[in-house]
Amino acid sequence: MASSKHLFLFLISILFLLTLSSAEDAFVPYNFEVSYITASPLGVPQQVIAINDQFPGPTINVTTNNNVAVNVRNKLDESLLIHWSGIQQRRSSWQDGVLGTNCPIPPKWNWTYQFQVKDQIGSFFYFPSLHFQRAAGGFGGFIINNRPVISVPFDTPQGDIVVFIGDWYTRNHTDLRKDLDDGKDLGMPNGVLINGKGPYRYNDTLVPEGIDFEQLDVQPGKTYRLRVHNVGISTSLNFRIQNHNLLLAETEGSYTVQQNYTSLDIHVGQSYSFLVTMDQNASSDYYIVASARFVNESRWKRVTGVGILHYTNSKGKAKGPLPAGPDDQFDKTYSMNQARSIRWNVSASGARPNPQGSFRYGSINVTDIYVLKNKPLVKIDGKRRATLSGISYTNPATPLRLADQFKVKGVYKLDFPTKPLTGSPRIETSVINGSFRGFMEIILQNNDTKMHTYHLNGYAFFVVGMDFGDWSENSRGTYNKWDGIARSTAQVYPGAWTAVLVSLDNVGIWNLRTENLDSWYLGQETYIRVVNPEPTNKTELPIPDNALFCGALAKKQKQQIISSAASFNGNGLKLLFTLLNVLWFPV
């Protein structure tokens, strides 16, 4: 019953979007059926989350300013939200797919995300944001292409290939979650997957027989665009292709100054686009490698992702040792210098025809400063927790954005500290009070012993500095105020800091978190609340008609379904029946 009602609301949403869409801003529908399948990526049968029976899930491929509707049917045995990592959801945090903005989709329910990919281009991905589910899959690519009238700073490649890399456990996500709840570490992963598949058998001792591996088929002499995403749990990976240069061209929606790398460190949650020219003699196939960084190489050899690059005129299989990655387990200077070398292409057009560098972020006065410090896990009230500036975040039953909309009191506190707490750590729902149209400086200080990456929803921030040691006000003298890369995910090395600047022009409530899934699950996150003091639909869209309700607002759910159906007029029904003849979404 609930599923059919949500199909009905999905079609209402289509009609609404069609009325808003012009020929220029096309409407693009997708249907996601999220379910468990049994797969054996590392040779061990296990429960994996698939979308439309695919692991990884299908790629969403749209163009700047398209209107997107994704009807999600939850066939899992637990609630679900899909988050669109890096998609800024301009004016609509309602569609962000995290617990601060959305009530979960219950099992056996349909719910439809509907949003415009406004003024964005680039390489992104989506994933399930609840219950540690990303450790079981459920992720897929999200490509936003330039409009034809906007020039791209490179020739059209022969092909566009999405590559997912990430550490992987053979235990179910529910078992991993239980380990964290019980205060245990997850331990070393069982392997690294490339596009949901295990390693090519490059070594008979390390890789067992019968494992399916990823193979990319290419034509000699052609150039391909590889969009590489680290969708893992907590392991930084070095990505490389034997005997081939990786020409970096874009990261998370920004065109970069084009530079060649023989390999690049890709940290959890990060995305990069490389142009790779097939300029070798194809005497054999070539290894594609994703190997763990800053670890004991001898212990972690089996935790290496290996795929195959296969030319159509290849003369044989890949053989011999893997191409070597950086050898600097205890010295992260090489990796940091590599990260600093990634710069914004200020002369290239982005989603609009004006150059990316026309936004001169270095000359804007900062209005808010937050120093966010990460430390190793601590015990609070007998539970092992992760903290940010001494606060371990806990999600309330009522999403923050819904609490604001309906003036529900006591759901959260708007008191996140600008500097780390000096007293005992505590568990709270504490939120950053952002100033609408302010310019915020965020210093991410990592006093943990492991790498972290941090992600901000709703925005791209400018990565202006990073260094080892503790940040101080004198550190601003090292900032890049001209061509620091604009992206949504930045790495912070252990014992080091990263500084970012962000223009708070997108109204809503936006998640700021570590992308390391274990620490995120244990509370290392907060939200930035950005409110226009003079509310208008020009800065934030109204609450969607199909909004789900929970927590203190759970009783509104039935009322919402009835009122949506009652407001559907005769003309809408006529168009609905037309749509039913064209579209079929199983319920």
Automatic annotation (TrEMBL):
Plastocyanin-like domain mapped to chain residues: 34-147, 160-313, 398-533
Secretion signal span: 1-23
Matching SUPFAM superfamilies: Cupredoxins (SSF49503)
GO cellular component, one term: side of membrane
Cofactors required: Cu cation
Cellular compartments annotated: Cell membrane
Superkingdom of source: Eukaryota
A molecular-function term among this protein's GO annotations: copper ion binding
Pfam families: Cu-oxidase, Cu-oxidase_2, Cu-oxidase_3
Swiss-Prot/TrEMBL keywords: Cell membrane, Copper, Glycoprotein, GPI-anchor, Lipoprotein, Membrane, Metal-binding, Signal
Principal location listed in the UniProt entry: membrane
Recorded topology in the membrane: Lipid-anchor; GPI-anchor
Family: Belongs to the multicopper oxidase family.
Name the UniProt record assigns to this protein: Monocopper oxidase-like protein SKU5
